[in-house]
Amino acid sequence: MSTHSPVMKRVAPIAIPMNEAERLDAEVDALMDGGIGWMETLGFALTTLRTNPLRTLLTTLGVLIGVAAVVALLSIGRGAQNSITASITSNGANLLTVRSGASSSGGVRGAVGDSSSLTMSDAEALTDSTRNPDIAQVSPEYSGNAQLVAGSNNVNARVTGASAIYASVHNSTLAEGGFISADDVSTTAKVIVLGANVSKTLFPDGGALGQTVRVTGQQFTVVGVLASSGGSGFGSSDDGVIIPLSTAQRILFGARSVGGSWTVSTIVTQASSATVVDAAQAEVETTMREEHSLALDGSADNFSVINQATILATVTQTTQMLTMFLAAIAAISLLVGGIGIMNIMLVSVRERTREIGLRKALGACEGDIMRQFLFESLALSGVGGLAGLALGSAIALAVNLSGLLTTTLSWDVALLAFGFALAVGLFFGIAPARSAARLDPIVALRYE
Amino acid sequence: MNAMIVAQDLRRTYTMGEFEVQALRGVSFEIRRGEFVAIVGPSGSGKSTLMNMIGCLDTPTSGSYHLDGLPIEQLDPALLSAVRNRKIGFVFQQFHLLARSTALENVALPLAYRGGISAAERHRKAAAALERVGLGERMGHRPQELSGGQQQRVAIARALVTDPALLLADEPTGALDTKTSAEIMGLFADLNRAGMTVIVVTHEPDVARQTKRLLEIRDGQLVRDVLTADAWPDETHVQKARSRRLPTRQQWRLRHEHA
User: Is A361 in the B-facing interface, judged by CB distances under 8 Å?
Assistant: First the structure.
């Protein structure tokens, strides 16, 4: 700066004696230079924790249990959500199910066979691709419950009368044999396709194919067994059986005919892709209103359309809320663990008052002491967090292996729980660290 | 620049509720490099306050204090920490060693707070300091495995390891028996002979007697600043008395209480 002045340039080659202020500045600079590094401070913190193993263990326990609970519960929640989603979509994707009876009409439901019933002609109308460009497939179904008997075994199962297209709409795969064919439907054949669980119940030793199953007195021949869909509940195909639609309508359940067309209990339509599900729903509703001569604004609907995507969203939301609720409870225990750390750290500060005084006398400044104690609480919560991750994962895996519930471990859950543990350690470490840093060394050194 | 310490009109007032306690009421003195000084006085005299001030643990309410050319009263707490680390070696009555650390780790501690010194270098310097106080064989021992005298030697090594400008000892023999006290004071005398400036705060005449200069504080004021050799005018009498029996603390007190 001053070297730019001509005077200073002239003087520069001669050594200028430092005046008092410059000397002081230089000394102060030298004093400020240096100071303890982070690694050394961390080393002090870890040494303290290592030399008090029991105290360290007990202090970390709170955080350990908290993190383990968060990880285990979130894993179980995610697992439940995944299996529910899987079981809903196991019966086919992008499905719109049409049922008779308006969703808004409360308990009022038309008698079987009246004008509000769904019929085969409704199904045919929905198949018309000019009226319903976004609908890919239509599966009219007639279902009811019936007692199935094979030899000495019997089971009550959901019997669905379906056409050949059912397998394609519901993503059914066969473990053995074949599916209901168009011929079976047109000839009202007494053939039956068993769900995986039904087959296991009726024919525990296998070999169901070609056997006879009695359904409410009628003899049916087993032509196929479905592969297990893995899903459970929500009308999983594993627990049902399938027979030709015409057989169900005319022989088994005695369906009526309305205006020369057999009634069905549901018409399952499949949108051509996930993005057009809403458009497909609108088409289904319009077509149905036209077929049933109803007001087009939907005010007089005597049918309802169940959108699989909506159910999925609702169920997902519900499980997510439940999971978050459980995790929040677990997080409270993590918070309590943090308070445990604060408690121990406050005791530790008091216990080590003379040590703090000594460190200050030996040249530690407030920041050094603060950092040392913050590192201690961070290390406590960090170690507790890691051990908690291990324990939580172990619990999740054990639950999975036990077969009670499926659990899904994921990285974001682990990071979230560990990060929260560290945040708890930092937050609850601040108060003890501050009280340590602010100790007057004179008082601290004389503390008994 | 030969003065290590220049204290001018040091005053320290503590406020306790509505009362003001004047612990120091204007103390001025100089201590040159290489001196061996005892600060004596009864408890409550302001002796401890003065020691805290010399040790840069406290700053004066008014007056000025220069240590090794630094105006201590103008420095902020962080700088005071750095000054304590670099300029002063503390020795305490209660040793103040970290119980769970070895002698070597205890001695290396101040070097960690200095910063910029590798762990290997810190250990080398700490080992050298322990050798210097005669504890080269016991570096790996923890404080509870050492005698009181050995613990105080570790503390002295810790004070020496930073190569400080000043060794400040607060009742360094207060927790030791007579024989060990003599050894520790002998160590201070040796260090002083090697050029170290040593200040010992004490109320024990036997300890004060082994220094070269005596500063006596009473009621917050410096009442005596004499060469230790001149502190006891009846030294010949004392010498005779010592051959029979050491003067007790009470006798020393009585002799000086009304001086």
Answer: yes
Q: Does any domain span residue A244?
A: yes
Q: Determine, for residues A357 and B96 on separate chains, whether the beta-carbon distance falls below 8 Å.
A: yes
| B56-91 pLDDT tens trace | 999 999 999 999 989 999 999 999 999 999 999 999
The whole-number pLDDT of residue A2 equals 41
Taking only residues 405 to 444 of chain A, the set having a beta carbon closer than 8 angstroms to any beta carbon of chain B reads: 441-442
Nearest to A27 among B70, B92, B158 (CB): B70
Do A234 and A115 lie in one domain? The reply is: yes
A76 and A225 co-located in one domain: no
Other C-beta atoms lying within 10 Å of the C-beta of residue A403: 7
* pTM attached to this predicted model: 0.74
- The number of distinct structural domains making up chain A is 2
Q: Is residue A13 part of a domain?
A: no
Question: For B145-165, what is the mean pLDDT?
Answer: 95
**Which DSSP category does A251 fall into?**
I
Q: Which domain holds residue A195?
A: 111-301
CA–CA dist A2, A253 (Å, integer): 107
Of A277, A301, A325, the last residue of a domain is A301
Query: Is A42 in the B-facing interface, judged by CB distances under 8 Å?
Result: no
* A354/B contact by beta carbon, under 8 A: yes
DSSP A134: T
Give the pLDDT mean for A47-51: 90
**Contact state of B84 with A363 under an 8 Å Cβ cutoff:** yes
Q: Are A37 and B115 in contact (CB under 8 A)?
A: yes
Q: Do A264 and A118 touch, CB atoms closer than 8 A?
A: yes
Ramachandran region of residue A14, left (φ > 0), alpha (ψ -120 to 50) or beta? beta
Interface residue B14 vs chain A (CB under 8 A): no
Is there a contact between B115 and A441 if contact means CB atoms under 8 Å apart?
no
Structure tokens at B209: 């007697």
Chain B, 71-90: which have a CB under 8 Å from a chain A CB? 71, 75, 77-79, 81-86, 90
Could you report the per-residue pLDDT of B96-152, keeping only the tens digit for each?
A: 999 999 999 999 999 999 988 899 999 999 999 999 999 999 999 999 999 999 999
Q: Is A95 part of any domain?
A: no
Q: Does B59 touch chain A (CB under 8 A)?
A: no
* Token reading at A245: 């639609």
